[in-house]
Design brief:
It is a single chain. The chain is of the alpha+beta class. Among the domains are: about 130 residues, Orthogonal Bundle (Helix Hairpins); about 90 residues, Urease metallochaperone UreE, N-terminal domain (HSP40/DNAj peptide-binding domain), CATH 2.60.260. It contains eleven helices and 16 strands. α3 packs antiparallel against α4. It is found in: Cytoplasm. GO terms for molecular function: ATP binding; heat shock protein binding; unfolded protein binding; zinc ion binding. Keywords: Chaperone, Cytoplasm, DNA replication, Metal-binding, Repeat, Stress response, Zinc, Zinc-finger.
């Protein structure tokens, strides 16, 4: 049963007893309702079956003293499902505030029992508030720096092997003129008299809760600037431009977004720095392409090499040429694999080089070459290679 059910369901009404009913009354009411609505007594009656489930659920809570105490306390604090601050606006639902479902999810991490909920919400003091004022705080503590995004363009070979490139960044940092205080040179901020330097302000509602929120006078900074810095106008922050060396890992792809933790904007009040996100653009290569962790290359071969077979040399990206054996009768478009001449993988291994052969057809022939090819055709006697196409139509 979810925590929402504890609040929205009136178990006393389900059993038809009063809120101060004795355990004996609850037991008697449950036995009668369970007997009247039992599925064996009402075969094929879904309404009676649901009624039986409801009274069983209500009895499970109200017959247990601890569960009943938690249930009564929850109903008193949270009403009919809306999060209420007793004493505020006549005890009505808080406008714009968190819903009961959201509050429970945040406080207990899901549909846990109310004992767990109250332990988290009241700092481990249990479900009974005992009339003492409890604090529902919105304080966030130190502020994390902003994330920064930039772009770099690298050559194809650098994307395969990795490279370190300079990158100019623009982000928020402490103002150089006032060193982050927000006060004009020669002056200092004073402690906010409203929050006494805490940056937070508590407003008591006269009920169970007191709400803590950022101080309105100092806007959560804890200090008040009477004579603001003319550069940052009292904010203590300014635009910062700096150049840093960014390492682009081996094997990066075009358009890949790299996260560099803690290299973004500086934090405030001791907060951690933000992250730097670098979008990498890769210039295309003149002859090499890429397919996953493999490099691709198209190598032209002559008709003689494809027909008779040959050993050819092909280039690699960064380790000199390698020899490749083209078997006799190799058709146009066949792909061969050269192991370990591809992209550096994350585990330190290397992909392969995929070489696709392309048979080169002469653009012009001498009379002697023409006669030789004609003689070749007559000697081979292949006939029409497209005959099978028509045979299957």
């Amino acid at each position: 049963m979810s925590t929402k059910d504890w609040i929205e369901k009136d178990f006393y009404k389900v059993l038809g007893v009063s809120k101060d009913a004795k355990p004996e009354e609850i037991k008697k009411a449950y036995r009668k309702l369970a007997r009247d609505n039992h599925p064996d007594q009402n075969p094929g009656n879904p309404a009676a079956e649901q009624r039986f489930k409801d009274v069983s659920e209500a009895n499970d809570v109200l017959s247990n003293p601890e569960k009943r105490k938690e249930y009564d306390e929850a109903r008193r604090l949270f009403g009919g499902g809306g999060f209420r601050f007793p004493g505020a606006n006549g005890g009505g639902r808080t406008s714009g505030g968190p819903s009961m479902e959201d509050l429970f999810r945040n406080a207990s991490g899901g549909d846990a029992g109310l004992g767990d909920l109250f332990g988290g919400l009241f700092g481990g003091q249990g479900g009974g508030a005992g009339g003492r004022t409890q604090r529902y705080s919105t304080q966030r503590g130190p502020r994390r720096g902003s994330d920064v995004e930039g772009e770099v363009t690298v050559d194809f070979s650098d994307s395969i092997n990795g490279v370190t490139v300079p990158m100019q960044m623009v982000s928020d940092a402490a103002c150089d003129a006032c060193h982050g205080t927000g006060a004009k040179a020669g002056t200092v901020p004073r402690v906010c008299p409203t929050c006494e330097g805490s940056g937070m302000q508590t407003s008591a509602s006269g009920g169970v809760f007191a709400v803590t929120e950022p101080c309105r006078d100092c806007r959560g900074r804890g200090m008040v600037v009477d004579d603001p810095c003319p550069v940052c106008h009292g904010s203590g922050r300014a635009r910062s431009t700096r150049t840093m060396q960014v390492r682009i890992p081996a094997g990066v792809t075009d358009g890949q977004r790299i996260r560099l933790k803690g290299k973004g904007g500086a934090g405030e009040n001791g907060g951690a720095a933000g992250d730097l996100y670098v979008v990498v653009h890769v210039n295309p290569h003149a002859i090499f392409g890429r397919k996953g962790d493999n490099l691709t290359l198209t190598a032209p071969v002559t008709f003689n090499e494809a027909a008779l077979g040959a050993e050819i040399e092909v280039p690699t990206l960064d380790s000199g040429p390698v020899k490749l054996r083209v078997p006799q009768g190799t058709p146009n478009g066949r792909t061969f694999r050269v192991r370990g001449k591809g992209v550096t993988k994350r585990d330190g291994g290397k992909g392969d080089l995929l070489v696709t052969v392309e048979v080169v057809v002469p653009q012009s022939l001498t009379e002697q070459a023409r006669e030789a090819l004609t003689s070749y055709g007559e000697a081979v006697g292949v006939g029409n290679p497209r005959a099978k196409l028509f045979a299957r139509t």
